[in-house]
Amino acid sequence: MTRFLHGRNLLFVGVGAAALVVALVLILVSVLGSSNAETTPPTPPTQTAADGSTAPAKAPGAAATAALFRGVPQQLNQLGNPKAKVTMIEFADPQCPFCRQFALDALPAIVKEYVRTGKVKLVLFGIPIIGQNSEDGLRAVYAAGLQNKLWNFMDLLYKSQGAENSGWITDALLRQIGDSIPGFDTDKMMADRRSSDVDAALAASEQQASNARVDRTPTFFAGPTGGTLQQIPVTALTPEAFRPTLDSLTR
Questions:
Q1: Mapped to the 3 state alphabet, what secondary structure does 162-178 carry?
Q2: What is the pTM for the complete model shown?
Q3: Which are the contacts of 54, defined by CB distance < 8 A and separation ≥ 6?
Q4: Which residues are CB-neighbours of 41 under 8 A, at least 6 positions away?
Q5: Cβ-count burial of 65 within 10 angstroms (0-12 exposed, 13-18 middle, 19+ buried)?
Q6: Cys-Cys link to 96, which of 2, 42, 125, 205 (CB 3.0-4.6 A)?
């Protein structure tokens, strides 16, 4: 069962904090090798227009997600200005209901107030602590990161979230989400899920979580970019819970 972690004061110290961010970037930025594509792509859901024509159905919340991230720089697992003064890291699982709560209730305000203004960059590390379906989702999320759409993809996964380990993360859902992201190559994402780059990204994320003793999601760290990152002692998943830490760091 996923639990919301709070109260412990873990640190990534000095160079280790910078390495946490940089290691995954270096892994994901490597040149992609050959990938195994699906042999028979599933048929995506369709929607019928007023004139009777049909088109692939968009994932729930697609318009809001596109608006939230539109114009905000993304590079692999990072969101925001790479030179932002402050880095905030989230360890997350796509099946975690608390991670979904953060994405829906707190993330939009954080993006608007801190990321769009260039004060904070966000870094996502996915850890599949709930089950195999979590890894299925994270493989697609990291493959989306290779197209610099990781944050869009994860947000839409949360908006379609089902019960833990119910098998809700299907190829059909992943295709629907990919087809709902403007300018996104869904076929490439589906193929890249089994690439060596995504294998390495998952391994690196789990190693970083192990190094930081993170065993619950969501868990957040923040601090000066390239410096010490300290766990954010949030007791709620609202914008108000994050503002004291982020305001003190961005002054």
A1: CCCCCCCCCHHHHHHHH
A2: 0.81
A3: 46, 47, 48
A4: 171, 175, 187, 190
A5: buried
A6: 2
pLDDT digits (tens, 9 = 90+) for 190-228: 999 999 999 999 999 999 999 999 989 999 999 999 998
Whole-angstrom distance, CA of residue 195 vs CA of residue 95: 22
Q: How far apart are CA 108 and CA 181, in angstroms?
A: 17
Residue 9, C-beta contacts closer than 8 angstroms, at least 6 positions apart: 230, 231, 233
pLDDT at residue 16 above 50?
A: no
pLDDT tens-digit series, residues 75-111: 999 999 999 999 999 999 999 999 999 999 999 999 9
184: tokens are 């996104």
**How far does Cα 166 stand from its chain's mean position?**
21
Do residues 225 and 85 lie in contact, with contact meaning Cβ atoms separated by under 8 Å?
yes
Cα–Cα distances in Å, from 192 out to 36, 93, 102, 143? 8, 19, 27, 5
By DSSP bridging, strand 46-48 and strand 54-56 are antiparallel
Using the predicted structure, report yes or no on whether residue 29 has a pLDDT greater than 50.
Answer: no
Rounded CA separation 159/222 (Å): 25
Residues 6 or more apart from 37 whose CB is under 8 A from it? 187, 190, 191
